[in-house]
């Protein structure tokens, strides 16, 4: 399975700005990308990082500085085989979760993200195109129906958890021992449990 | 599989107070309970609602006004067979997701909730007891290890989504056509997509 991993090389995970400096966000995003590539490496995926600028990583990088939707659709235009798209901030992704995605039957297979996003998908229909704006999982269901593509969804908490909000750091510390989790621990983040929801605090 | 569904009959889903009156919260919570019971009815589960007070519903109700942890552990003390616990605010639960939970091998099978909770679990070990305070999924892993129980986790977005925060209403409208989703639509809630995250608004 060919897999695109879109990656913002300039200003990644901007919603983490309240808790990380721009430089830290770039470093943390690179660790999350590393986690996603580690998980993909344990599957039969053939990944390409689709980046807005140069990135150092162990798989091929295609640079396209257009917005996400246009850059992905250009690859769908050119695709001659099934193509998967897996977001780079899925720090909880595991080989098992990704294999469930790749192995699910359907012309379009969606892994919904929390809040209406589409965190990962597989496209096996020549006319389907993405639109990541708004409630994209709903729009992708409708687009698939319009072009006559069958759809299926993968029910995965790990794939639903894109780490782009300070509250999401809790999930990384609770459910991963990978690169991003180690980076957070090294940066002083730790879990705090009190009377309300679990949260993270940073030493220092 | 015997399944307990704990339900707060007095002040359910208190974090929804910013968007629902106390009376509306009780009505919405009853609809979510209905969704969970509908999903369980399509499995081979044998459900009991473990409520803090009287509830009208189509399955047996056991009333226990103690806090959640004490009430569940009293049932575990008395259990002679595997016992599952499924929270009543899992409005996105489906028979397939619940069957994945019940069918997973392990002395203790955990379905993590977002933010460190334990939204559902199966207990097949005589010494394991729950503690829902704090980051319970982490604590339950540790407790299982302490009593020598094997653990497994179910990776499900549907089971990870307990609807107890205004932001969670988005998930109900996007991923369910059940009782709670219809209640929200009838109450005037609809999805709003803009430049940021998808959210709900209520017609006024």
UniProtKB/TrEMBL annotation, chains A, B:
Pathway: Cofactor biosynthesis; coenzyme F420 biosynthesis. It holds the Pfam family CofC. GO terms for biological process: F420-0 metabolic process. Its EC number is 2.7.7.68. It catalyses: (2S)-2-phospholactate + GTP + H(+) = (2S)-lactyl-2-diphospho-5'-guanosine + diphosphate. It is an enzyme of class 2 (transferase). It comes from the Archaea. One of its GO terms (molecular function) is phospholactate guanylyltransferase activity. Keywords: GTP-binding, Nucleotide-binding, Nucleotidyltransferase, Transferase. Homodimer. Guanylyltransferase that catalyzes the activation of (2S)-2-phospholactate (2-PL) as (2S)-lactyl-2-diphospho-5'-guanosine, via the condensation of 2-PL with GTP. It is involved in the biosynthesis of coenzyme F420, a hydride carrier cofactor. PANTHER family: 2-PHOSPHO-L-LACTATE GUANYLYLTRANSFERASE. Belongs to the CofC family. This is 2-phospho-L-lactate guanylyltransferase. It comes from Salinirubellus salinus.
